[in-house]
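Posting for a labmate who doesn't have an account.
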Amino acid sequence: MTKEIHLPLSKEDIRSIKAGDTVYISGTIYTARDCAHKRMTELLDAGKELPIVIEGAFIYYAGPCPAREGNASGSCGPTTSARMESFAPRLLDLGLSGMIGKGEMDEKTREAIKRNGGVYFAAIGGAGALYGKRVKSSELVAFPDLLSEGIYRLEVERFPAVAAIDFEGRSIYDGR
């Protein structure tokens, strides 16, 4: 099934998404790769606040390239989600609604998605130019020293993805 979704999503909205559904995402997402996740974990370990409101948010595992004049973003393709597996369950437990990335995620992450009623969307590897064109605005909001790997707030429109793991833990990667 193909769905147009608008972030933020309610728990009811998330429950309507099934593994295998094609989605077009519009709304606010945040980018964060390995280094940004490590920094967020260090902040949490130190008892400090995160630089973004995690409750209800979606994190896109990407680092946008600089934009050409007249564009909001350069190429903005997904990175391998498995690299964030040690961080994802904790953020889901803190209220993260979901993630967008490339490839499978481990059983601990799947269990955290189920436990928290979240969703994981798979983006298309190699489609960074397409994703960059779906970004309508981009703002660096944390960790500027990490350059493109800092945390960016993106406003996206009709950002294509596939529901890879749904709120019940069903995965498009099962049965391979």
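Reply:
Got it, the structure tokens are right above this. The CA atoms of residues 20 and 116 lie 20 Å apart.
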